[in-house]
Amino acid sequence: MSDFQAPAANAPDSAATGAARYPVTDKVLEALSVSRRGCDELLPEADWTAKLARSEATGTPLRIKLGLDPTAPDLHVGHTVVLNKMRQLQNLGHTVIFLVGDFTSLIGDPSGRNSTRPPLTAEQIKLNAETYYAQASLVLDPEKTEIRYNSEWSDALGARGMIALAAKYTVARMMERNDFHDRFKAGTPISVHEFLYPLMQGYDSVALKSDLELGGTDQKFNLLMGRHLQQEYGQEAQCILTMPLLEGLDGIEKMSKSKGNYIAITEPPNEMFAKVLSISDTLMWKYFNLLSFRAEAEIAGLRREVEQGRNPKDAKVLLAKEITARFHSARAADEAEADFNNRAKGGIPDEIPELALTGAPLGIAALLKAAGLVPSSSEAMRMIEQGGVKIDGAAVSDKGLKVAAGTLVLQVGKRKFARVTLT
């Protein structure tokens, strides 16, 4: 089963019906090109073109919405795929609405889930939401961004309003959704409250009178719900723009903090730079396309150079410096590059954690764990077997080593260091 399709572009409330009144100028085509860059789908494109033409002709900015549920306290670069697109459209002069889903988080988004997602508590939501906008402002222009919370209108609906809203969509249409269909077929429980999530997200579009809503490809059903409900409420239907989901550092799973394959946008610059350098040469181009602000022609030229023999690390360094500079500074990016090169040569970074420990002589595995460089003694043993543990730059091969008292620099892998004074 597939997600339901967008209504035809020539529907009675379609923006395309008025397209003939406004010329599609070169500026409109340029804005359309910016909209399309890196996106998975833009639906319906004829409507979006018409909205852009009307906006240019009348000088009225379009309202562009992105909703994020504060399910975790930190954003990662996977979240910035849609934030980058918002910034590009913001730079064209349109109104960007950063919507914090403090109400919908109480329900829990069922998108892509094969089980009921545990809803967050109000306290968890409040704590997470406090940092969301501050982090998003590292990408968006805060002076040109409208921040809203969907509890503003969702709380006000009450039981009567919720029933009226639920009457505007059928159970049969709701069951066309992939995750609901698959879970029902497998006999996996679906809670009634999960049906409310796409309805409430769609109602956000009604409340905000949005012209365009952005989201990941896994949000298509919810985004199209917004179109449907706007039509139900007599509004011009929004267009939707879906962006691909960004794989994490492993190149397999979607970037996720819970999977440990993420780059947090608040990550220290040295860590951020090194993590970008760790992605595969193949995945690098998807990161360029979705995370870089370089012109598409420049990226294409860089890719040709690599295909013709240029070291792919050169391109990856450019990407790592661009991303690090975006969330820190150009100077921090330069220093991160120098730090990375120093580590690659076996050098010790200028700034590493310092701590004092007792218990000398202490077993190497216990020492590494106490220093916070490994999560367990078994992981310490595995790293020693792989040659990934060094003391003062010398590799450790003896898993039974007892470390005497003194001050020493411990290293695990390429990026974990600690200066320990052991007594």
TrEMBL record:
ATP binds at residue 257. One of its GO terms (molecular function) is RNA binding. CDD domains: S4, TyrRS_core. Its EC number is 6.1.1.1. It catalyses: tRNA(Tyr) + L-tyrosine + ATP = L-tyrosyl-tRNA(Tyr) + AMP + diphosphate + H(+). It is found in: Cytoplasm. Gene3D superfamilies: HUPs, RNA-binding S4 domain, Tyrosyl-Transfer RNA Synthetase. A motif ('HIGH' region) lies at residues 70-79. A motif ('KMSKS' region) lies at residues 254-258. Belongs to the class-I aminoacyl-tRNA synthetase family. TyrS type 2 subfamily. Catalyzes the attachment of tyrosine to tRNA(Tyr) in a two-step reaction: tyrosine is first activated by ATP to form Tyr-AMP and then transferred to the acceptor end of tRNA(Tyr). This is Tyrosine--tRNA ligase. The gene is tyrS.
